[in-house]
Write a structure and sequence with these properties.
CATH architecture: 3-Layer(aba) Sandwich
CATH superfamily: Alpha/Beta hydrolase fold, catalytic domain
CATH class: Alpha Beta
Keywords: Hydrolase
Radius of gyration: 20 Å
InterPro entries: AB_hydrolase_1 (IPR000073), AB_hydrolase_fold (IPR029058), AB_hydrolase_sf (IPR050266)
Oligomer: single chain
Organism: Daphnia galeata
Protein name: AB hydrolase-1 domain-containing protein
Helix content: 25-40%
CATH topology: Rossmann fold
GO molecular function, one term: hydrolase activity
């Protein structure tokens, strides 16, 4: 049962000592799209234009009218399915970028989509971009109020599998795999990731679907990305939900040079690891390692949900984690709390902040409370704060604890629902 109180959000900073294979690039990959691009607007447009040039059909404003009628396939529930062991069949090729095989593709490969016939049906799609594609799991039918769901660090789009079926059936939710996560392409060799990349990609996803306005549902890193995107593009966001995260982690200015040095050293070490073969685990061992790495935030069932999109299978039958190891490299450049506060002051849309009682405390409480106050003061459409029972992954382990408040937030005017 959600209660309105002054809670503290959390963000896991947990690493799994695994090694990932470098991604194989698409034969249609276009290099150099960012060359000589001077600002973020041009970066977005240059990438969009490049994708349109090479994949003009697939960049329609909506996929609601596929080139080929979808074929329905049986759905396997989380309790009975074993990922990558029984692949779904009858996938239908659509106009999408041809990219690398994801190894454990759950019945779809590059350039294909699968529509699963369930009470709350979903569809797997790929969004073509210059370096490959972003994968997404889409629930519901297209409407005028789309919701983009963004997962946490080192998770994937499957993190919302338990929550979405509990939400109103008329919602249209696009669950994105961030680059280097889930079924999305990894960056080319040698590149580094930054969470600003994800912020730019949100804009690219909106361009792909032709969205002028949409809502965002974000957990942890996804909540950070959602809030920062809302700050830089406030005219595009209807509503924002942040699950167990309040703000990006800030770094005092005096610590930033040392942090940058450690990030570069980590980058060098990770590049060396990427030249090696990843370790192989039994299914049970891989699941247990994932549970332990999340330090009690997920259970075995939740781990299996994440593993469906987050693991691949070796030829010897063993499993390895498929997310890009480069995501463990610390951020080279950080912001201070004062800088982050300026972004927070631009989040004017209706905001639902959900904090878990068993979540992680990642920054001083006074800083967290300062940001909650900022949101409360600047939100013009209504600010709500629900403090609920659960862990950092409450939406995956105990989705029933947040489904009512999320449903109400998206179903009615936020100002009327605010407490």
């Amino acid at each position: 049962m959600a209660t309105v109180t002054s809670g503290v959000g959390g963000m896991k900073r947990l690493l799994i000592d695994v090694i990932l294979l470098p991604s194989r690039l698409s034969r249609r990959q276009v290099s150099g799209v960012y060359h000589n691009v001077r600002d973020s607007r041009n970066i977005w447009q240059a990438t969009i234009n490049t994708a349109r040039r090479y994949h003009p059909v697939s960049l329609a404003s909506s996929f609601s009218k596929p080139a080929v009628a979808p074929i329905f396939v049986p759905f396997q529930s989380s309790s009975s399915s074993t990922f990558c062991k029984h692949k779904m069949v009858n996938s239908v090729e659509t106009a999408s970028v041809g990219a690398e095989s994801n190894g454990c593709d759950n019945g779809h490969s590059a350039g294909q989509e699968v529509l699963v016939d369930t009470a709350a049906s979903f569809k797997e799609i790929q969004i073509p971009l210059s370096w490959g594609h972003l994968a997404a799991k889409v629930w519901g039918k297209p409407n005028d109020h789309p919701i983009l769901a963004l997962h946490g660090w080192q998770d994937n789009a499957g993190t919302f599998d338990k929550l979405i079926p509990l939400l109103p059936s008329d919602l249209y939710v696009v669950c994105l795999d961030f680059c280097g996560h889930g079924l999305s392409s990894h960056y080319p060799k040698g590149m580094m990731y930054h969470y600003w990349d994800h912020i730019a990609h949100v804009r690219l996803v909106a361009e792909y679907f032709g969205w002028s306005r949409f809502s965002i549902l974000g957990h942890s890193l996804g909540g950070i990305v959602g809030s920062m995107f809302t700050a830089v593009s406030p005219h595009m966001v209807d509503k924002l939900v942040m699950i167990d995260i309040v703000k990006p982690i800030s770094t005092p200015a005096r610590f930033q040079p040392d942090k940058s040095a450690k990030a570069i050293e980590s980058y060098i070490q990770v590049l060396k690891k990427l030249e090696q073969n990843p370790p192989s685990y039994t299914y049970e061992a891989a699941r247990e390692r994932l549970v332990q790495a999340n330090n009690g935030s997920i259970d075995s069932e939740a781990a299996e949900v994440l593993m469906r999109r987050g693991t691949k299978q070796h030829e010897d039958g063993g499993y390895y984690y498929s997310r890009d190891l480069r995501h463990v490299i610390p951020t080279v450049a950080s912001y201070t709390a004062e800088q982050h506060a300026e972004y927070a002051k631009r989040v004017h849309c209706p905001l639902l902040l959900i904090t878990a009682k068993g979540g992680l405390i990642y920054e001083d409480r006074s800083v967290i409370e300062d940001f909650i106050k900022i949101y409360r003061d600047v939100s013009k459409g209504g600010f709500q704060h629900a403090h609920v029972e659960g862990t950092h992954h409450v939406h995956l382990v105990n989705p029933e604890n947040i489904a009512p408040v999320v449903s109400k937030f998206f179903s009615v005017d936020a100002e009327q629902a605010s407490t």
